[in-house]
Amino acid sequence: MKSLKPSKRAIPFLTLALSLLIVVALGTTQALAAWKPTRPIEFVIMAGKGGGADRIARLMQKIVTQNKWSPQPLVPINKKGGSGAEAMLYLLSKKGNPHVILVTLNSFFTTPALRKLPVNYTKLTPVYRLAMDTFLLWVNTKSGIKNMDDFVKAVKAKKGKWTMGGTGKMQEDQLVTNMLMQAYGLKGMITYVPFRGGGTVAKNLAGGHVDSTVNNPSEGLPHYPGKMKPIAALTPERIPAFKDVPTFKELGQPQLVYFMQRSINAPGGIPKDALAWYTDLFNKLCNSKEWKDYTSSKALNRACLSGAPLGKFFADEDVKHKKLLMGMGLLKN
Amino acid sequence: MEILGNLFYGLGIALSPQNLLMALFGVVLGVAIGAMPGLGSVNGVAILLPITFAVPPTSAIIFLAAIYYGAMYGGAISSITLNIPGASTAVATTFDGYPLARKGKAADALVTAAVASFIGGTLSIVLFTFFAPPLAEFALRFGPPEEFAVVLLAYATFAGLGGESPLKTIIATMLGLLMSTVGTDIVSGSPRLIFGGITGFYHGINFLVLAIGIYGVGEIFYTLEEGFKTKERYQAKLGVQEIVSTLKNLTKCTPTIARGSLLGFFVGMLPAAGATPASFMSYSIAKRFAKNPEEFGKGALEGVAAPECANNAASTGSMLPMLTLGIPGSPTTAVMLGALFVWGLVPGPRLFVENAEFVWGLTGSLYIANTMAVIVAIFAVPIFIWMLRMPMTILAPIILVVCAVGGFSPTQDMFDVYLMFIFGAVGYIFRKLDYPLAPMVLALVLGGLTERTFRQSMIMSHGSPGIFFDFAGHPIAAALMMVSAVLFILPLIPMIFRFRVSRSGTSA
Asked: pTM value?
């Protein structure tokens, strides 16, 4: 009888020890197994609903959902404030949280530099680059402008009253406009008019309210070829969808090359396994038929990149954008 | 004739069992979403977009359009019953809808809203069917100066609609405009008035946060003061008889509805404006033309019919530039446009040729969805009347929760929920001091657009305000400016006259 007593007392201890063991064992197996999202993933978009970045994000959501690549849904959230500042500050506040990712524009480089934010690309984890959007110089078909020579003549003839429509201020479109003015000696002759989105910009050119734009191909397509005419492309090679349009490189201005990167970033300090999971996810996405179809139909460059080369790409782009901003006198050393 | 052929083709597509089901599903969800304050059609369409990934694009757009439509009907429901606009498009509906509900005529107001919506929607769809391509050409002629002129017209129609005191109206309007400047400056791209970097201010003050705050939360504060007694005002009935008598009463709203529908369609079609200014303009025009303007704001059926027919007409109108020009006429169509790209379709004139099934299927479904929506909305009326009969002790907490969800959902930021409660207190104080709330809301809705289009115009003209009065270069803008000028001056004449009379009265 006496011998039984201690064993009886031992039972709770044993159970406790066992359960502890199980917990530890489960914990280790979980740590050993690949990371998987356990909550819905916040898919932060640094622009408003319906814009270019928003469309791409929702397309990605569609491809991931349809192929059932993620056990948890991707939930798009628009944080458009301060030209992307709101979204980037949000990611900074989510340090170490692997359930938040950000889809970027080039304001990813310009906004932190211009606004002196406590966050820039180095404070985040680069995950994947999926595409590089291209730019074209467009005019209204009614203008009768056929090539770059006509364009330069027309701008000069307007004596400083030529207008260029674009999205936002000190963002991609204005940088391109400034590059153009420098290359062709048109400084001070083009007035830049900021609009809210690329679609609105294209509409204002089609309606004859501005004289030219540097829209992405997908934004110009609704009005092409009836109302809008592309003059030259800011790409190293001709864009397949616009085979007749020369590049600025062909026209003797090799420095006029500009892309808009579409990439995915996570907050800084996320677990390595989580980064691996996202890299794999977006690698699958970038190589999917749906993504290939979309990029070719919208004349985007599909450009899959991850890991260390992506980090280098970001660093190069950051330097390039700072130089552009300094060239415009918007940024000092 | 070709158009009729296309229309029948489209109706055929829309009547396929799958598409019919999608439309019904969309309408029911839409009415529910619209009735939920803060959810509104923009968020509804964005949230439910993933559901459409499983079906072909035609069924998907039918579903999304049905949600958009349903939400326009649903928006009126919470405006009328709770004084909380379900969406920005339904704010003007609260002006007379809620007073009617307080008088025990919630059912009349709800039925009027549904029927006016139906007529506005249908007229607009007919215009859409027959004139889409030429109207798209017309919309293209609207650049920044023209858009600014339209916005100014919206203010002009609304002037004189404030309360008794013009000074208080001006103060309320200015406060609204001031709030619209918080956030990111479109022209320089820098954040403004963010009070040293409060991140919640970066995206600006969302219109719904203000509207739900001052109307919804403010109403609760107001009711707190009155005490939680179940009031007789909610003893409304709804049977076949009531519906018939309401419909009979509606005949006197016919001119209002006709005007509002046309206005709504055209304003909705313009790229910048959308359904919200359309509903405000329709309301104020209805008041101007009314035989009984003094009843407006106190529970006039025309005051419910006017904004409701206009916002539905505008929602169809705003789909026109989306399909033909690839530019959204409203925030909701911006999301739908994104969906179009996701499905691999390119908007533009060619869409009508290359994807005829899509365009005409959608057009056909609009007729069907609209009919379904009016039936669903009328059948939903008894449910809401029943809800209103709940004692305030139960209803008030529910409303507060619904308000909080509504404040949170547009930006998904808790900051906005706190802001909304602050606005609730502001709304309560304003009402106590007899400040009109509507001009403040309107100014916040239109403020950003006003500033943006004005500054864009000034950049285009290199600083010359002449761009607005240039009959040769911008005839549409100039004509609209003239109309606005007349509308601004008209209410001043009796005011000056009255002022003189009262002065001579006191001196005598």
From this structure: 0.79
